[in-house]
Automatic annotation (TrEMBL):
InterPro entries: DUF1191. Residues 204-228, 289-308 are annotated as: Disordered. Residues 1-18 form the signal peptide. The keyword 4Fe-4S does not apply. Keywords: Membrane, Signal, Transmembrane, Transmembrane helix. It comes from the Eukaryota. This is Uncharacterized protein. The chain crosses the membrane at residues 235-258.
Length: 308
């Protein structure tokens, strides 16, 4: 068990550091996304498998020809929609779009003080596809020339708390954070690659108010029904208190009786032991039997009995 725990900690070390480095995570996910290409085909997304110490995170990879993406775009890649006219720098013949869904790891790698994530952090990064076994690759820079890239959170967004307004947030690769208005309640737009989420600014004044309890429907007899229900409630409380007190008194009396019974049994056992330890001779006196003491000394003898 000790060795298993030790190796478990060793495997967790890449994910456990003081700041949960998002750039280190990007490098790790790029490696596992590329491993999904066993027999790769262009234009088909392949879901990768992450190590168990990153359980919950989803990663996928989509290989495309550079010219094809520029002319056709990608109508649907997970939650992302890539428009026509996206260009990459530097130019490559084939590129790979790596998709991230950080799920329950979102707050650890992309904390945002004063805000609550309504969606997991989703990311899309672009890499050169010339070497599918390469690791620690630098990202390509992609920019749409006409329409922006859209991120549709419709399948992952949580309900918005009452009194709060959701916003799109963009986490740049250099650590910068940008906010933007949300479209149609669940769509964010961007002109850059990186990571995205929908958040709300959290303030104590904007906490949702508890819903009021439904009022009882009035019955025939007007307001007397409310008085009756209130009276029944009071009687229930009074009965509970009295019942608890009676039960307590009964418990105290039961304990006292048990102690008294135990003491009496102890005395009876002592008397019985005493009777068994010193048996007395019995004799019949009339119609009854009575104990008698046995002789405890020899009969006296006269001195002159031994004289000649």
């Amino acid at each position: 068990m000790f060795l298993i725990a030790f190796f478990h900690i060793i495997l967790l070390l890449p994910a456990i550091n003081a700041e949960f480095s998002s750039r280190l995570l990007d490098s790790v996910l790029q490696d596992y996304a590329f491993r999904a290409f066993v027999m790769p085909r262009t234009g088909i997304p392949y879901d990768g498998n992450v190590p168990f110490n990153y359980t919950g995170i989803k990663v996928s990879a989509l290989r495309l020809r550079s010219g094809s993406m520029r002319r056709r775009g990608v109508s649907r890649y997970k939650e992302f929609q890539i428009p026509i006219g996206v260009l990459e720098q530097p130019y490559v013949e084939r590129l790979i779009l790596v998709y991230h869904n950080l799920a329950n790891w979102s707050d650890l790698y992309y904390p945002l003080p004063g805000h609550i994530h309504l969606t997991p952090v989703l990311g899309i990064l672009t890499y050169d596809a010339s070497n599918l076994s390469a690791t620690n690759l630098p990202e390509l820079d992609i920019r749409p020339s006409k329409n922006p890239i859209l991120v549709n959170f419709s399948s992952v967004v949580k309900p918005v708390p009452m009194g709060l307004s959701p916003k799109c947030v963009y986490f740049n690769l250099d650590g910068a954070v940008e906010f933007d208005n949300i479209l149609n309640g669940n769509v964010c737009k961007t002109t850059k690659q990186g990571h995205f989420s929908v958040v709300v600014e959290f303030t104590t004044a904007a906490e949702p108010e508890p819903e009021p309890e439904p009022e009882p429907e009035p019955a025939s007899g007007g307001g007397t029904n409310g008085h009756k229900s209130g009276g029944r409630k009071n009687w229930v409380i009074f009965g509970s208190v009295v019942g608890g007190f009676v039960a307590l008194v009964f418990l105290v009396l039961l304990i006292a009786c048990l102690k008294k019974y135990g003491k009496k049994k102890k005395i009876d056992r002592m008397e019985e032991a005493a009777d068994r330890g010193v048996p007395l001779l019995m004799t019949k006196v009339g119609n009854t039997k009575a104990p008698i003491a046995s002789e405890t000394r020899t009969r006296p003898s006269l001195e002159n009995e031994y004289l000649p």
